[in-house]
Amino acid sequence: MSRKYFGTDGIRGRVNSGAMTPAIALRAGMAAGRIFTRGEHRHRVVIGKDTRLSGYMIESALVAGFTSVGMDVFLFGPLPTPAVAMLTRSLRADMGVMITASHNQYQDNGIKFFGPDGRKLSDAHETAIEALMDGGFETGLATAPKLGRAKRVDDSQARYIEFAKRTFPSELTLEGLRIVIDCANGAAYKVAPEVLWELGAEIIPLGVTPDGFNINSGCGSTSPEAMSAKVREMRANFGIALDGDADRVVMADENGRIIDGDQVLALLAKSWGQRGRLKGGGVVGTVMSNAGLDRYLKTLDLKLARAQVGDRYVIEQMQKGGFNVGGEQSGHVVLSDFSPTGDGLIAALQVLAVLAAQGKPASEAAHLYEAMPQVLESVRFQKGSPLANARVAECIRDGEARLNGSGRLLVRKSGTEPVIRVMAEGDDEVLVRAVVSDVVAAIQEAAA
Q1: Which of 237, 413, 433, 434 has the most Cβ atoms closer than 10 angstroms to its Cβ?
Q2: Is residue 366 part of a domain?
Q3: Structural domains of the chain, count
Q4: Per-residue pLDDT reduced to its tens digit, 393-428
Q5: Residues 150 and 165 both lie in one domain
């Protein structure tokens, strides 16, 4: 069933238009507050945000909505999404909220909801919130004595710093390592460098001067070239690039060569499998995961379970199959032993722990397989669905026939922005590029 406000990762859109206005945020807070207000205790919601200018506006509207239905609000300020999930559980809150559009530019913003267990809400909960958002609120408002209060939590960053450090093995250290850390001018700009420094690393920070407008702009995991270049320039041992809300990460070895989410899954599957820490007999990836990862895992007698794109679907598959490692090629890595959601910094720390334990540089330890040639392109569209076009459908069928079992073609709409993603992979890179080019051209023509 199509939904009016929620996409694959909460509510998201261009600021002050569509679903991302103060009025919608107010209604979302009121509706979610009503659903998660149960029992006679004082109910509480925790709210974090990234560094977008619009965060102030959305935050104020949410506070008004939650307090109006009797929920106390604890405001964290700029903090990574996984920190909000962790603190939702730690503070025994009834729910958590993160104001972010993740890897999008500053013009967009979004609202992510978490249940009391720190996990993202189910489709059923989101559907219930939408129904209340459009159903009126007269019966849900709190009486004057039961209105909620709002307060700032000043030590939220320190709490997350200590939590993240505890995930790194106590017998290991980062001393002697020079690490480039790119925080995308986003939510982790204070906590990520501090964690690495306190664990002993020499840090070279990038993307740590947010101004409300520069989040994800030429930096972070969506533009890892800046991080890779700085690794080479400073002769660093390792590079880490987070996205705007720090729930995804892309890394680089000492030569600046990128280590994507698939390579991280391979590294952790091998290391954790050898140490008896891996659960489920493999890892969870997505339909976008490279076939090279699948081939490599089979050599270890491990499996790759594929989920739909989106960390919530990865998490669902992990829970269903009893896995404790999952993720996406784009850098969402979920390690359920530590966190109920993707955490870019903790994923990087686990990779660094493997490197420290092995005493090997990342160039030796973190590139475990040769990726099958894979091409991914994105096509923006304004309205409608170009995928419904007959010419596009014909072109997709033709592409699949040309690959003829030697590769695969995947065409899908993004759940977070008006974009269609075209991905193909196969042993013949020339053919793969030609197939993607033809499909993209057909979609562009249909979208014109």
Answers
A1: 237
A2: no
A3: 4
A4: 999 999 999 998 788 999 988 876 788 999 999 989
A5: no
Burial tier of 138 (Cβ tally within 10 Å: 0-12, 13-18, 19+)? exposed
Is residue 386 scored above 60 in pLDDT? yes
Phi, psi of 373 (to 5 degrees): -50, 125
Catalytic residue from among 54, 102, 221, 339: 102
- Residue 206: in which H helix or E strand, if any? strand 202-206
CATH number of the domain bearing residue 267: 3.40.120.10
**Which residue is listed with tokens 């019966």?**
139
Q: What is the number of residues in the chain?
A: 448
Q: Are 13 and 145 found together in one domain?
A: yes
| 54 in catalytic set | no
- For 187, residues 6+ apart whose C-beta sits below 8 A from its C-beta are 48, 49, 50, 51, 78, 79, 80, 81, 100, 244, 245, 246
Distance CA 246, CA 186 (A): 8
Residue written as tokens 């945000």? 49
Same domain for 141 and 36, yes or no, is: yes
pLDDT tens per residue across span 189-222? 999 999 999 999 999 999 999 999 999 999 999 9
- Report pLDDT digits (tens) over 318-329: 999 999 999 999
Q: How many CB atoms lie within 10 A of CB 387?
A: 16
Q: Give the separation between CA 318 and CA 298, rounded to whole angstroms.
A: 19
- Residue for token pair 């979920």: 334
Question: CA 72 to CA 45: how far, in whole Å?
Answer: 6
Residue 363: inside a domain, yes or no?
no
Domain CATH for 396: 3.30.310.50
Of 154, 169, 188, which residue is a domain's last? Answer: 154
Chosen domain end from 321, 343, 365: 343
pLDDT tens by residue, 17-33? 999 999 999 999 999 99
The residues, any chain, with a CB within 8 Å of residue 304's CB and separated by 6 or more, are: 282, 283, 284, 285, 289, 293, 294, 297
Task: Report d(CA 140, CA 409) in Å as an integer.
Answer: 48
- CA-CA distance, 207 to 226, in Å (whole number)? 10
Query: What domain range includes position 188?
Result: 159-258
